[in-house]
Amino acid sequence: MPDDQDLPKLEALTHRLSECPGEFLLEPVQGKRGAVHVDAVVSDLLLDLGGKALDDQTARRFTPSAEESRNALRLTLVGCWLGSDPWFLEAGIYAVGMLRWLTEDLPGRAAVVDAERFVTDPERREELARSLLATLGLTPLGESREQAADRLTALDSVERARVIRETRAAEEKARKLREAMAAKRAREAAAKAMRE
To answer: Is residue 28 classed as helix, strand or coil in its secondary structure?
Structure first.
């Protein structure tokens, strides 16, 4: 684990994302379509980090044919660009954590945000960089663990999407309850009018 002065600079990581080459946003190979073999890019990154290349079973996670996985594969490529920052490569100890981030964290983010926004939008760049650091057990230079966790929570697209879904569900439930109560009052009023 690096000491405090050796921690990564968040600004350097977000700047790196802003300069993501267009090749990392090309279409991933899915079936017979696409231009980039995501499994090969991930294997190269893991090797560069001092780890092992993907085995056949794990490589299949990065070669699905379903259209709904397209954005997750594109975000994986952006994640590989971020993970190949010289800071991580020089440390050379983060291959396992990087693979965990690519397979466990990024798909959830890809389900709610287009991959390209993690390159073009400053808040999404910060979110992506912070999520990687959090997965690796690191904090940005100059921040405490609590500060880093609070900021990631404030930016978290997955959490925001969950809160919006729950709010909409609660609003729908309240609407249905209001309608049921109004219908009951109308029935009671009609019954009272018939008695009179």
So the answer is: strand
